[in-house]
Amino acid sequence: MTDALLVLALTSAACALPGVFLLLRNLSMMADAISHTVLLGIVLAFFAIHDLSSPWLLVGAALMGVVTVLSVELLGRTKTLKIDDAIGIIFPMLFSLAVILISKYAGNVHLDTDMVLMGEVIYAGLDIVPVFGHEIAVSALKMGGIFLLNAAFITLFYKELKLSTFDEETARLIGMATGAIFYGLMTLISLTTVAAFDAVGSILVISFFIAPAGTALLFTKRLHYALFLAVLFGLLSSAVGYGLAVHFNASMSGMCALVNMVIYVAAVLFHPKGVLTKRLHQAHNKTRLRQELLIIHLGTHTAQHRYSAENKVTEIAAHLRWNAAEMKRVRTELERDDILTRSGDYYLLTKKGEARYRELCAAYFL
Question: Residue 232: CA atoms inside 13 Å, Cβ hemisphere, count?
């Protein structure tokens, strides 16, 4: 079972790094396209060599990923379609062709399209090799290698990737080989996708490419921080998904994809500029302003007459145009903070409240 967790963790880390650049380049759907069309590369390579265990299947799949990117780029450059539209045309066509070839000419071959799509990482521990006296899952070794390859590529070409991602025009003007950088990145994405096929399936691969990177970019706009956070969120979703899958006896790949979504939605709601965070901040500001308004009202009228009619318990809500519930909520909060007290039929400021009143006058009126 620990082999499955290791494979999940390494796969998430390997996918998260290039996933950040996919999102920044507005090419998130490209990961979906590549993860499906590489199946055609596997099928064509199998027809050529007739060996499901051959490494040439990985090569064929990676090449098909590059072909997918080239096809989308060429179709997009015609200016008749947007890139997203081109992806929507190319990848269903190539994936459908792969499914047709499998069903027509490889019906007796164990090349299961459902397994490619959904995967089942729990089987990773069935294929192991000895490494320094320890048995390690082959999938873990492959994904570990892919992670190191992706990390090395991003480290070596960090400046080029950063500039070509954020300002491609400037990168071209200074003579940077933006095309080579782009297709190098796409080739790595193809390799990453194919390497994860037999372990986690393409659905989880897509989730690992997009969700951790998307979550990371909600919290930071600095590229190096985003890369680190994407890997961190990928590892978190792997660990939580693994634990929940074991507890509920469910699909690990499916559970990890679900956890990815839950983490992303939670981030959308609660990140510093998230939907609920903004609501909570607005509510807090509204409450603070109401408290300050009541303090200023009491302080102003107390200065005129300690027991001013405007400060009477029965009158003050009407003067402020608040309903009874609003008045009770604000009064309770100020009493709790030892700013407001009640003296008979009147509300008065405590010493702490008077000090707060002077601070507000200095802030608002001077």
Answer: 10
